[in-house]
Amino acid sequence: MANQTPTPTAPREPVLLSSNYDGIREYDNPMPFWWTSIFWLTILAAGPYFFFYHLGVGSSLNDNYEAEVGEYGAILAAQLGDVEADTPTILTLVERPELRMGGAALFKGNCATCHGPEGGGLTGPNLTDDAYINVKTPEDIFRVITNGVPGKGMPEWGKRFSKQQVLLLASYVANLRGTKPGSAKEAQGSVIEPWPKVEAPATPSGSAAPTK
Ligand code: HEC
Q1: Cα dist from 192 to 25, 140, 158, 174, 185, whole Å
Q2: Domain ranges of the chain
Q3: Ligand 1: which of 106, 115, 132, 142 to mutate, most ligand atoms within 8 Å of CB?
Q4: Which of 113, 126, 135, 154 has most ligand 1 atoms within 8 Å of CB, for mutation?
Q5: How far is the CA of 189 from the centre of ligand 1 (A)?
Q6: How many angstroms separate the CA atoms of 123 and 131, rounded?
Q7: Fold (topology level) of 61-191
Q8: Residue 117 Cα to ligand 1 middle (Å)
Q9: pLDDT tens track for 157-198
Q10: How confident is the model over 69-113, as pLDDT tens digits?
């Protein structure tokens, strides 16, 4: 075994390791430099990656997606134009799938912390059951979201959102009624009448919105 400690510049003689597995011997061939560099780089990258994506420091692809859908929802809401916040509109707006996505994104981003991701309630009341504290009609939902409930922890969203965005939210919330969330808070307030049966009003663009 000559030349076991070659100088870096000298061509390296193959070095046989002392291990012997049933007659199978192996050479001490180091991995190429490019290979070990990539290996160490992946280990180095894992640290920041873990902090950024797993410990909630950065935003995940999913968060980015939801934020973009939310922005899209805002654009759609703006296109609703001068729309009435009446019962037929509130009850039927989210039957249009893209408006439903916009409403869902707004809800997830702003309301889920208190009302639960599916509206089942956390610190805020359950929005999926038939019992409400401040609501008797779909218009009340629009009003409560706009004005909040002073002193009761429900913020005044009319300050932050356009009328059309609140309308998307009201429509989304009105249609949460009767859904079955994974976790539901106990009923608060009193049980109210079912929503009235309505026809979707024609959309401002003139094209008829889908009806039930
Ligand atoms: C900081 C917590 C918090 C956030 C965020 C929040 N809410 Fe609320 N919300 C509440 C609380 C608490 C109540 C109950 C108020 C009361 O006791 O009268 C409430 C009540 C409501 C009600 C009336 C329910 C009822 O039974 O009368 C609606 C509708 C509602 N919220 C919708 C929303 C929407 C839509 C959003 C997001 C834009 C939102 N909330 C965000 C805390 C919150």
Answers
A1: 82, 12, 25, 13, 17
A2: 61-191
A3: 115
A4: 154
A5: 13
A6: 16
A7: Cytochrome Bc1 Complex; Chain D, domain 2 (1.10.760)
A8: 13
A9: 999 999 999 999 999 999 999 999 999 999 999 999 999 998
A10: 777 877 888 888 888 999 999 999 989 888 888 899 889 889 999
